[in-house]
Every structure is written in C-alpha cells, then in structure tokens.
C-alpha cells in the first residue's frame, strides 16, 4: 500500500503581509491577490480580518487554511459569550497563542496549516505585534514581514523602525516596502490594503494602487 | 395540584387519568416561585429586565447573572432554577455554534427557539431525568426581521410575544406591560418603563433586597446583545423610584 | 506521434482512456448583472481523450434558485452536490424559507476543505436569494471560498481571463450578460480540447430560473 500523503501543496495562495509598530498602534499591510500557481486568479481578496474589536489577523500562504483559522478564532470568541458577555474578550496575545497551538498540532500530524499568520492588537493601552509560522513557532517583534517580505521588506522595516515612529512615517515606510515587493515578488499585484490597529479600534483601508517608476528601463536598453 | 398522593406525579412518563403530566406542571411551578423577569419587544429592539434577589450581602454586584447571550446576536433571560437556565443557554450556544460552523451564518432566532424547545421537551419524556425548572426568554434584533421575542417554557412549548413576564409577579407585570404602546416605544424610552415595572412588582416589605439587571438587543447596540450601560440603568432606576406608586399589587398575585 | 506505437490498435487507446477517471474538463462561468445572474457551461465530459458524454448538464441545482457549476472529477462533484442539496433541504425546512446562496456556498466550502485530500472538485456556487440578491462564490481546489461579481472555472477558463477582464462590466443588462456568457463559453470551447458540445446557460433572478441551450452546430465559430 502506498503511504498516505497528507502534506499537499497549497492551491490558492497569498503573498507577503507586512506590519510595523508606531507610537500609537500598529500598521499592517498586504496586497489583495490570491494566486493559483502562477495565475493571478483572485485579484480582490482581503487577507486581513478583524477578529475582535482589538485584534486583527493577516496571513500569507494557503487561503483556504487562512479562512479556516479565521473561522476557528471567531468561533472561539463566540463560544466565550454565554453569561460572560461583559468580561474582557480574549487578548491579542491569547489569540496568538491559540493559533500557535492549532498550527503546532497540525504540523505534528505532518499536515500543517500552510500559513504564516500575523496577529496585531491594541488592548489596555498596549500594542501587540506577533506572528505564528507554518510549524506553530510564535514570536513577537516591532516589525514583522512574511513570505517574500521577510527578505525584501524586513530589512527596510528594521532600518526605518524607531520607538517614536509616527503613524504617517509608518505608513510611508510600509508603502515603500510594498512597492519594493511589487517590483521583486512575482506573486504580488499593485493593489494593496493597509490596516490600522490602535486605541480607536481597527480600520482596514479600501484597496489602492501605488505609483511605480520604470525610468531605469532606458539605462537597460541595448544591454543584455 | 391534585396529583399529590395519587401516584401519577412521580415521573413525567405517566399521564394522570385526566391527561395531565404533573411533573411538568411542578416544573412550571418552580418558575412561578422565582423572582420575576420580563422581556418586551419594541419598535427597534428587545429589552430584558430581571428582578434579581440579593441572596447574600457578600455577593459581588453584578454576579449571578440571569441574562445571557447566545453568540452575540441573541439575548436570553431566565426565571426559575438558575442552574437549569444556564444549561439551556449553554445548549443554545452550542446550537448557535454548530449552525454557524455549517452555514457561516448566524442562527435565526426562530430556528434556535425550535431547537431549544425540542431539547426542553425531550426532558419531559424520560423517568430518569427531571424536566427543566425554568423558563427562558430569547430576543433578537436585525434589520431584516426586526425585533423578535420568544418564550420557552418547561413543557417545551414556545411562542412569540410582544411582551412577556415570567416568575412570581408575572401577572401584575403583564398587566403593566399591556399598558405600554409597544409598537411606538423605542428601546431608550422602554428602559425606563422596564425599570418602573420591575420596581412596581417588587414588594419591598416582603421580598429581600433586589438588584435590577437589564440588557438589550437593538438598533442602538448594533444588533448585539449587551447589558444596558450603567448610566442608563441609573437614570431608569431613578425614574422608576420617582414614579412607582404602589408596591402592594403583588399581594394579590398568587391567589 | 511516438506514443501511438505503444498501442496495438486504436481500440487499445480507447480502452486505456476508459480506465482514466471521468472528468468534466469543462468551461463554467457565472456572471452577476443588475437584478440577477447568468450561469453558463459547456457540455463535454471526458475520460482521457474520450468524450463519455457530449451533452452533460453541468448546471446542477441544489435549491430552487441556487446552482452549483461543477468542474473536476464528475463522481466527486456529483456526490458533493447531492450532499449539499440534502443539507439545504433540511435547513430550509427548519427555517421555513429558502436557503441563501451564502449558506449553500459555505456548505460546499466545508466539504471541499475538510476532504481536500480526497477530492478533485472545483465548484462555482451561484444563485439568487431574498437576503443578498444575486450572488456568486468560487470554491477552487483546496476549499477556499471567494465571493465574486463574476466567476470562471474549469480547464477552459484559462483561455478566458483576458476576455473577461476586458469585457466584464458591473450592472450589465440581462441581454448584455447573456451574450457575455455565451461568447465566453464559445471562445473556450473553440480552444480547449476538454470543453465542447453545446452551451447550456440559465438566467436566475427574483422571478425564478429560465434555462436555455445552444446546440453544438449553433455555437459561434471564432476561427476559420
């Protein structure tokens, strides 16, 4: 008998998610593409979602697994209602831990959830920015980038990060990174969304396009 | 209760010769003994008000809840044995979860009430289990269906209502609710009326101290079930205290 | 061709084809217009290169005004559609009103996601309901669920991305929408060996379902 195959390739995938803390919260960004192999199949797909009033999750990798994680977390939060409605909801850190246990459990069954999940939250006057990878490894940082972003955006984010970064500075920095990713990641399109997680709650922008530059083409002309 | 001593009242599995099931009637009796809870359905939502007895001075304020949530889009309020009511709301939450996991949509209130009725009714069929000693009101509000209010009784029957009252003073509470113009009232206005009714039926001379517990699910709360904010409750309580004339209506209740 | 020499006769090729799984190579699409949707599909079912059914009906109803458009393994998708139809029947009886498209699509998602390792099923779920009006959901391989203003699927759809990107408009009239769908399916039939036969299409709106067929000899020929 053939051995059972469990670890399949992902089908519909999303590319990088970027996030950076600023002085009053967190900025998270991603493009809106759901790739199907190299086919840019779904061009209007939101990869970040609000799971509580304080917590946002975003994800790279397999979209069906990402949707399943979103559903699981939403279901977990609803389960905690009953007579406890006015109690504190789950904190961003608790949500990150829950996701990490689910993902570690799946990797231990050799059937991982094919994602890199970013958890951003603002609760009790504190920013939280963390992530969970495909194996269930969890970590926190001031800047996080998944997928190709780990190579192209993370160094730029780290260089640009400072304790008292303002919101506008953070958005500018993130936009620079998104542009670099659009230039260098073949699974990215020029249609992005930026989410803001702060005291005032969570807002996710409408999709927008970034201005790109191609003047270097003139220099290339005639060369191999 | 002519069942006592006849032998027809020891399990719900046996009818009396008149066709009654005494165990179920006794279960309903334990709701009648409970302090009162009311629910009213107004133009833009549903409000629950509970007369909660303070059973100990050491109890933390706000504890011992008798309003609960099912998911975030349905509210519930109980009278009777609180523990039994909690079990029903737990069941309701589990039904809501399984419905949502399957369809990705919030369970419609009529579907939930049907399932809970059937669950409660099931507990009237076996000698090995005791019927639920509580009644539960369920309420919801959304743009499409408007406000809805249902009551599930220990026998497993359920009906939709404009207003309902359960517990010791249900009769006088109903009389008070009937005086209200429910289709015109808004939730904000109704808070005061609900508080007034609870204060009217509460017999200070006979009953223990009480705490007014109120929750709502309405346009203002965004279709979510929430406890009424403290400042609104305080305002409503003041209004109730100023406008409550007699507290003696209760004495005619259980005749 | 070299490969032919491996076979003793033409008959052997057909026999080998018969041992291939039966697939609906397929072109399927669903498009929203003002007030309703138009769904369309080719009618070819193949086992390898053998056409086992040239007049297949790939527009499979799962409720009065909700259809599933099937692509992938014929056996898998027929079974899933049957299960979803069964669930929707129970749910709508319980609710006392017709199910929503969202509900149907999420049932498809549930089965396609949970059993992804065992299925070859890519489904478009489309229809009309009183709550959301016309709606269309894609459930590609892997079991993601994506709501779209229009959806295309099956092997033939790869030839249609350009045509659809260029010609789809929101709020088309019913007539514009019908010709958009029939043109597209016709184009795919012309270029995709696994799509062919007749074009089946249907118009679904608040009034109900109106079904049509365009016979193979009436399908517009785009190349000479």
Automatic annotation (TrEMBL), chain A:
Its main location: cytoplasm. GO terms for cellular component: cytoplasm; nucleus; proteasome core complex, beta-subunit complex. Non-catalytic component of the proteasome. It is found in: Cytoplasm; Nucleus. InterPro entries: Ntn_hydrolases_N, Proteasome_beta4, Proteasome_bsu_CS, Proteasome_sua/b, Proteasome_suB-type. Belongs to the peptidase T1B family. One of its GO terms (biological process) is proteolysis involved in protein catabolic process. Pfam families: Proteasome. Signal peptide: none annotated. This is Proteasome subunit beta. Keywords: Cytoplasm, Nucleus, Proteasome.
UniProtKB/TrEMBL annotation, chain B:
Its main location: cytoplasm. GO terms for cellular component: cytoplasm; nucleus; proteasome core complex, alpha-subunit complex. It is found in: Cytoplasm; Nucleus. SUPFAM superfamilies: N-terminal nucleophile aminohydrolases (Ntn hydrolases). InterPro entries: Ntn_hydrolases_N (IPR029055), Proteasome_alpha (IPR050115), Proteasome_alpha-type (IPR023332), Proteasome_asu_N (IPR000426), Proteasome_sua/b (IPR001353). The keyword Repressor does not apply. It comes from the Eukaryota. Pfam families: Proteasome, Proteasome_A_N. Signal peptide: none annotated. Keywords: Cytoplasm, Nucleus, Proteasome. Residues 8-30 form the Proteasome alpha-type subunits domain. The proteasome is a multicatalytic proteinase complex which is characterized by its ability to cleave peptides with Arg, Phe, Tyr, Leu, and Glu adjacent to the leaving group at neutral or slightly basic pH. The proteasome has an ATP-dependent proteolytic activity. Belongs to the peptidase T1A family. The 26S proteasome consists of a 20S proteasome core and two 19S regulatory subunits. This is Proteasome subunit alpha type.
UniProtKB/TrEMBL annotation, chain C:
GO terms for molecular function: threonine-type endopeptidase activity. It catalyses: Cleavage of peptide bonds with very broad specificity. Pfam families: Proteasome. Signal peptide: none annotated. GO terms for biological process: proteolysis involved in protein catabolic process. The active site is at residue 26. The keyword Metal-binding does not apply. One of its GO terms (cellular component) is proteasome core complex, beta-subunit complex. It comes from the Eukaryota. It is found in: Cytoplasm; Nucleus. Keywords: Cytoplasm, Hydrolase, Nucleus, Protease, Proteasome, Threonine protease, Zymogen. Component of the proteasome complex. Belongs to the peptidase T1B family. Component of the proteasome, a multicatalytic proteinase complex which is characterized by its ability to cleave peptides with Arg, Phe, Tyr, Leu, and Glu adjacent to the leaving group at neutral or slightly basic pH. The proteasome has an ATP-dependent proteolytic activity. This is Proteasome subunit beta. It comes from Anaeramoeba ignava.
